[in-house]
């Protein structure tokens, strides 16, 4: 039983990459899809994007940022350890064609989710411009990987410690202002950043796709926890998405719904950190 | 025996004041003496109407006679000839509309407590140690995939494996059991009992693969072509929640019953923070609907810290679909009922949390297709009540994942699979169905019954599929 971690890599201060043995998931996983895992018997089910998969080896790559109890707990696992439950691939794959010139934006940890997309977009023969942003230099992830597969790469940091000072959306805004032809935009990151992207591209009528990250439980359309409002209609992100047309998404609602369990998440994390301290691990 | 005893032997229950603080089982079951005493009320009818009232036609007088003789394990075996899930059905069947409704004694007094007796012998047998495994015939070489591990899938699988077929159940969630595991709460159907039945199915030789969503992880056709399955049973249930579609529905604090019950039961949110999944229940909770699902949600809300829980239902007491016993239990526990009311909108505070529900008064008009009187809103009767949490329990429809990813599998306009009512065969050769995705949301025993019927015809199909016209024969009474 269980799903074995065959490889672990530390990407940054709070971000890690795992390669996990999950042959069934590896077999059919496509860019844009995600998995749901549960670390142990008392664990929560959390969704993570499929960052890559290898059919031959039967393995799936995930990249995650340690933000709370479950992701921190996950981060303590080592190569050879097992994850209790791992199910997927879930959600609809990204619709990728040869659009022409595609601009992809990754904000903070969204860059990890963006990575497999960029790869697939490039493989379809698109000209790919990638802009990745982070709060500060240390938090910029996957820069080398992105350079390898994009035609142009731009980096921004909020504090100017690396690349251009400011937000990724400003790079996009400048291009559009200059009249550069961009046929499609993909934007993945914190909700305010995705919302900003939508606002930038809307006046120009450039179709923009965002990958939404609402709280999920089952990921199969059974619970409705993941509901989002798109074009005034309620959709289940796990089966209708997770990607949607940015110009139709109600981002404010998404932002609020993500905060539903803030107090519980905080309590859970504190309790976990306390336990780690006691056991002298950390 | 002679004289009729009009009143049942009461079953002990936990005190309402105590039980609303825990998820421990409410009903405590009979002792052997009580069971014998209750069994003696049965007059062992020669032409027993109760048997016809049971959807799987358990030989009720036969098993009750065995209880009268103190042969409890034999009684349990007798039941299992028709129903492999007696511990569960004894607990959750709507007996008052099935076997007990037509019991002769019910004409003069209270009907024989068939469900309680069924539960008693099943629990008694389990307490004797591991239940014996029947002898399994030699392998037939056929492989059957059962999709979904609710009662229909479990029963279908256990029947097929006992006919010598190799059976694998594929389940989307991390635990098998379907609604029995994620929906019906611990205090009504302890998960240990569900686990016991599942363990039995495994010991029979059925392989259960969890974390496998047919249609996503692999499609049904891939299972056929790449994994060599010869026949399929689709028992994926009716787990797709309906929402009312009214303004404010996506505010924080508004759950579908499925989400609420899954968090509480499957993820054990009632033990947060020992278990990681939280559930957030405010002081004032309203639950919309009045079926079993609504009662379960209301009683879970009460046990999760709500101070006031109200069931809001658009029809009246008479039309409620929940088991009578559960409505009684809910009342005893202090759940309030607001009948002939319906929410029309929800309003939230700045953080987006629900704070008010706007309700409208209803009256009953002419009967609708279901034969129940149609609720009609009374114009201008709207008013607002303060709420902190809302659970919508207004019904579920079949999950579309399997039908959408399986070419050739036709659905009705209710999302159920088009199938033969007598054999369970669908519009795609080699694929059978049962349970809620066949019938629409129904009951555990009906799901079990359809699973059993499908197993019989799957076996027939496998043994005869090379003869011409077999599939046509199995599907001849399909109406689209
Ligand atoms: C489709 C999808 C793909 C995702 N892909 C990635 C990825 O590739 N890498 C990555 O690092 N993160 C990804 N996320 C986000 C990731 O699921 C959350 O960071 C994780 O659940 C946090 O859990 P926690 O216990 O560590 O933190 P918590 O303390 O529980 O929560 C921190 C924040 O994470 C969010 N969150 C909490 N629980 C859930 C949940 N069950 N489902 C979704 N979000 C939740 C909330 O916004 C919360 O405020 C994805 C989310 C979705 C919906
Ligand atoms: C809260 C609640 C209370 C109830 N109370 C009662 C009661 O008191 N008495 C009574 O008789 N009935 C009751 N019912 C109804 C009863 O539980 C159902 O009728 C019965 O469980 C249906 O059984 P099923 O076999 O069709 O599937 P379900 O029990 O619905 O199980 C279906 C299973 O299939 C899995 N699945 C779905 N899609 C896929 C897929 N693509 N791949 C793999 N697996 C999949 C699901 O995860 C699930 O585990 C209640 C229902 C609910 C929700
Ligand atoms: S299975 Fe249900 S309906 Fe049949 S006898 Fe038992 S309790 Fe009655
Ligand atoms: S109808 Fe009632 S009295 Fe007659 S056999 Fe059935 S349970 Fe016994
Ligand atoms: S996560 Fe449950 S329906 Fe989407």
SSE map:
The complex is a heterodimer of chains A (282) and B (480).
Chain A: E1 3-12, E2 15-21, H1 23-28, E3 34-38, E4 46-49, E5 52-54, E6 59-65, H2 69-75, E7 82-83, E8 85-90, E9 101-107, H3 110-123, E10 127-134, H4 143-149, E11 152-157, E12 164-165, H5 168-178, E13 184-188, H6 191-201, E14 208-211, E15 227-230, E16 233-236, H7 237-240, E17 243-245, H8 251-258, H9 262-279
Helix pairs in contact in A: 2-9, 5-6, 6-8
Chain B: E1 12-13, H1 16-19, E2 27-29, H2 32-39, H3 49-53, H4 60-68, H5 72-80, H6 86-92, H7 114-127, E3 143-147, H8 151-161, E4 166-170, H9 179-182, H10 191-203, E5 207-209, H11 220-227, E6 231-234, E7 240-241, E8 254-256, H12 257-266, E9 284-288, H13 292-303, E10 308-313, H14 324-332, E11 336-339, E12 341-348, E13 354-367, E14 373-377, E15 383-386, E16 389-392, E17 396-397, H15 401-405, E18 431-433, H16 436-439, H17 444-464, H18 470-474
Parallel strand pairs in B: 3-4, 3-6, 4-5, 6-18, 8-16, 9-10, 9-16, 10-11
Antiparallel strand pairs in B: 1-2, 7-17, 12-13, 13-14, 13-15
Helix pairs in contact in B: 2-4, 2-7, 4-5, 5-7, 6-7, 8-17, 12-13
Bound molecules: flavin-adenine dinucleotide (2 copies), iron/sulfur cluster (2 copies) and FE2/S2 (inorganic) cluster.
Task: Tell me what you see in this structure.
The complex is a heterodimer of chains A (282) and B (480). Chain A has 282 residues and is α/β, with parallel strands linked by helices. Chain A folds into 2 domains: 3-90, Beta Barrel (Elongation Factor Tu (Ef-tu), domain 3); 92-204, Nucleotide-binding domain of ferredoxin-NADP reductase (FNR) module (Rossmann fold, 3-Layer(aba) Sandwich), CATH 3.40.50.80. Chain A contains 9 helices and 17 strands. In chain A, a hairpin with a 2-residue loop joins strand 15 (227-230) and strand 16. In chain A, helix 2 (69-75) packs parallel to helix 9 (262-279), helix 5 packs parallel to helix 6 and helix 6 (191-201) runs antiparallel to helix 8 (251-258). The model of chain A has no long low-confidence stretch (mean pLDDT 91). Chain B has 3 domains: 16-127, Orthogonal Bundle (Fumarate Reductase Iron-sulfur Protein, Chain B, domain 2), CATH 1.10.1060.10; 143-239 and 398-474, FAD/NAD(P)-binding domain, CATH 3.50.50; 243-396, FAD/NAD(P)-binding domain (3-Layer(bba) Sandwich), CATH 3.50.50. Chain B is 33% helix and 17% strand. Chain B contains 18 helices and 18 strands. Chain B is globular. The mean pLDDT of chain B is 93. The interface between A and B is large, with 41 and 40 residues.
